[in-house]
């Protein structure tokens, strides 16, 4: 026992700590997503492989052995979206630069626009770009590069506007584009009662670090989406305080 303690190096402690942190982050990343169910499915396949070997089920063992021999490729194909999201977040750390955050007055203009749209039951999808660029979605929309104002935001989402169906993207304190179409989530755990706007907000935040505000035209409710998780039925005060934490200096 003493010899084991004596041979324990500082590098070993660092090694164990890093592996534990990586495992924790992986579990946190896939928790509540389809990747969690897929991981359980792969575990079942692996246990079946061990059982087939133990009980001499030669045919089943041969099939699973060939399948598991390509397990790295299988993991990349199955978890490609989750791997991309994880690598994106790693590359968005403090050492890789930071986004220009909203100022207090800019946030107030957005809050007033959101409250006005919700009170009139006008659907809206407002995206806040953070460190991960959203150029691929902006290119398909209408570039505005305009100053943030409640009048502009409201006018974009009026039913008579030709770009009211898409998302409005705010980048570096300006309205970058409108009429942008976002990827819909494929997470089976997402409630089927959620409409296209909510699913688009969840889908985008599953792949990027963006923050999305969704207004339901059916209910006039306000939702906030971040990291693939949605918080519904927010009032103006809660929305303001949450966005201040996420977006304001």
Descriptors for this entry?
seven-stranded mixed beta sheet, alpha+beta, elongated, 2 domains, YojJ-like (1
Brief digest:
It contains 11 helices and 7 strands. By secondary structure, the protein is α+β, with helices and mostly antiparallel strands.
Q: Please, could you describe this protein's structure?
A:
The protein has 249 residues and is α+β, with helices and mostly antiparallel strands. The protein has two domains: 77 residues, no CATH class; 144 residues, DNA integrity scanning protein, DisA, N-terminal domain (YojJ-like (1, 3-Layer(aba) Sandwich). A seven-stranded mixed beta sheet has the order 2-4-3-1-5-6-7, sandwiched between helices. A hairpin with a 2-residue loop joins strand 3 and strand 4. Helix 7 runs parallel beside helix 9 and helix 7 packs antiparallel against helix 11. The relative contact order is 0.12. About 2% of the residues have low confidence.
SSE blueprint and pairings:
Elements: H1 2-6, H2 10-30, H3 34-54, H4 58-68, H5 71-78, H6 80-90, H7 104-119, E1 124-128, H8 135-138, E2 142-147, H9 150-157, E3 167-171, E4 174-180, H10 196-207, E5 211-215, E6 222-226, E7 229-231, H11 236-247
Parallel strand pairs: 1-3
Antiparallel strand pairs: 1-5, 2-4, 3-4, 5-6, 6-7
Helix pairs in contact: 3-4, 7-9, 7-11
């Amino acid at each position: 026992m003493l010899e084991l303690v004596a041979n324990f190096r500082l590098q070993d402690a660092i090694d164990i700590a890093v592996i534990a942190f990586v495992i924790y982050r992986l579990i946190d990343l896939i928790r509540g997503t389809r990747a969690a169910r897929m991981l359980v499915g792969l575990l079942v396949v692996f246990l079946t492989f061990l059982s087939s070997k133990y009980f001499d089920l030669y045919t089943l063992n041969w099939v699973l052995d060939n399948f598991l021999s390509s397990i790295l490729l299988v993991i990349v194909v199955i978890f490609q979206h989750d791997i991309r999201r994880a690598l994106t977040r790693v590359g968005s750390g403090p050492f890789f630069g930071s986004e220009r955050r909203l100022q207090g007055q800019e946030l107030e203009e957005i809050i007033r626009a959101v409250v006005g749209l919700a009170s009139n039951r006008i659907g809206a999808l407002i995206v806040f770009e953070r460190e991960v660029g959203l150029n691929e979605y902006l290119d398909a929309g209408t570039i505005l590069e305009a100053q943030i104002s409640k009048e502009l935001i409201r006018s974009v989402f009026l039913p008579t506007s030709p770009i009211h169906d898409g998302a409005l993207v705010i980048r570096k304190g300006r309205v970058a584009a409108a009429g942008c179409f976002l990827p819909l989530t494929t997470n089976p755990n997402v409630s089927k009662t959620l409409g296209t706007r909510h699913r688009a907000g969840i889908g985008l935040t599953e792949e990027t670090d963006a923050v999305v505000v969704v207004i339901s035209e059916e209910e006039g409710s306000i939702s906030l989406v971040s990291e693939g998780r949605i918080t519904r039925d927010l009032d103006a005060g809660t929305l303001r305080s949450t966005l201040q934490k996420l977006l304001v200096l």
